[in-house]
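Pilot study result, target chain (325 residues):
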Amino acid sequence: MLLIGLTGGIGAGESTVARVLERAGAAIVDADAIAREVVAPGAPALARLVEAFGADILDAEGRLDRPALAAVAFADADSTARLNGIMHPAIAERAAELFALHADRDLVVHDVPLLVENAMSPRYHLALLVDVPAPVRLTRLVESRGMDRADAERRIAAQAGDPERYRACDVVVDNTGDPADTAARVERLVAERLLPFSRNLAAERPAERRPAAAGSAAPAPEHPGERAWVSERVVARLRHALDEAGLGSVELAAVDDPAADLVTVTLDLGAGTDSAALAAALTAAGYPAAEGSDPDATGQQSARGLHRNADPGRPVDVRISPATR
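Predicted structure:
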């Protein structure tokens, strides 16, 4: 299962992209739908909210009165923290259940409007951004949704800006123009990158690398700073995977080689690091061992402790530093 985070600013149309991905066979897990589900009447999270904030947050039929909850939950920092302490674990638990339910699917897409704001990108194999400039989104909100212009401006301003989204996301899908053009771009993305990535991940094999033609240069970055952002995203994703596996003592450092269009990450291991657990964590994160790799072998073979990413869209090498073993 390739786990994909999907996001975009308000009015960008990530639901449109989600429908294209669903038609291509992806399972869609909607974060907003989960947030409503976990506070439905009878849900444990709703009972905890009532315990924390009182019965006045319910309407006459026992359903959550969202404006009433907001009035008390956002009154001060402690109340907001209490709200988050109830909602975030409940939402995360339900999302994990749905991911497990769809574990046999090639693609699972987690549609999360605030993915960037909540620093969630490292949790996914890839993060996809539906990109529409803020002025265009503003026009859509006012003209298509009938939203008050000042309210729309406030909502856009409250979210992450475009540079923050570009920095956090691996793939940018332009949704400014005709919906058919957007659909065609997404379908190509599925065929050329997402499905091959998923199949490589399932087979625990690195993506095939084709040697660059003599004299060719690495492709130009999509946005200023993109090359450095790639390294940041790789390190953050690996850091998350290793921390989740209890391997927090492993240190990471990345070097970007623009000439080879390659990011190399070196892992410096702490004493007693479990090499089998390390290999399993890297593989699950999308960085399976290269052919012939043996992290416990002696010597300085080039394949020693080498993992390569399963993503055909961006070459990454992960090397276990021999100096630390």
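One observation from the pilot: The first strand starts at residue 2 and ends at 7. A full batch analysis is planned for the follow-on phase.
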